[in-house]
Amino acid sequence: MIEAASSAPICRLVLIRHAVAQGNGRFYGHTDVPLAPAARQQLRTLTRKISRYPVQVVYTSDLQRAHATAIAVARKFGAEIIVRPGLREMHFGKWERLSWAEVARRFPRSSRVWLTRFPNHPIPGGERFDAFKKRVRHELGQIVAANAGRSAAVVTHAGVARVILAGGLGVPDRYLFRMALDPAALSVIDVAPEGVVVQLVNG
Predict the structure, then answer these.
(1) Fewest C-beta in 10 Å: which of 25, 77, 121, 160?
(2) Taking each helix axis from N to C terminus, what angle separates 129-146 and 158-169, rounded to the nearest 10 degrees?
(3) 123 falls within a domain
(4) Please, how many CA atoms are within 13 Å of residue 151, restricted to the half-sphere of its CB?
(5) Taking the chain (203 residues) in consecutive chunks of 10 residues, what is each chunk's mean pLDDT?
(6) Residue 56 is part of which domain span?
(7) CATH assignment at residue 63
(8) Can you say whether the dihedral through the CA atoms of 164, 167, 169, 173 is positive or negative?
């Protein structure tokens, strides 16, 4: 999944899905929505959980739901925040802002085909999955290369986190949605020259 120099020490990634956003459950890919009021308690819980995994730097998507979550994590450790737009969720094209019920009603054929042929059937007007996956892997490679021997938090979105975890676990793309990733949940991945060890998923 990640290319690392043979002499590079371990990089620990603390992968965090942002806290719950307003309108949770809709296809908010690149749509920039704020956190919901319920996120406050989730962030308090997150900062308690993450105390077991101190980090030196926090990377975040530029969308406000991720950035606001990153601020809470960075404050816990006095860590630097680095914004990386490449950590955004996949763009959902014509499905942006819609619930699944609305998608199924407005796009009955393409929604059915998408369910049965994922990830090989693109969403109308949306980012192709192979391009999305390439973007995520590029970002991940950059972060790992910059943090050999350190721990870095990566605050991002469910789709991005699933791609990263699937790569580490060897899960085929078609099974991505079998991984639960709750708002403000964290996963821990150690990246070594010899390979990747997933220490925690959806904690």
Answers:
(1) 25
(2) 70
(3) no
(4) 16
(5) 55 98 96 98 97 97 98 98 98 97 96 94 95 97 96 98 96 94 97 93 96
(6) 11-91+128-200
(7) 3.40.50.1240
(8) positive
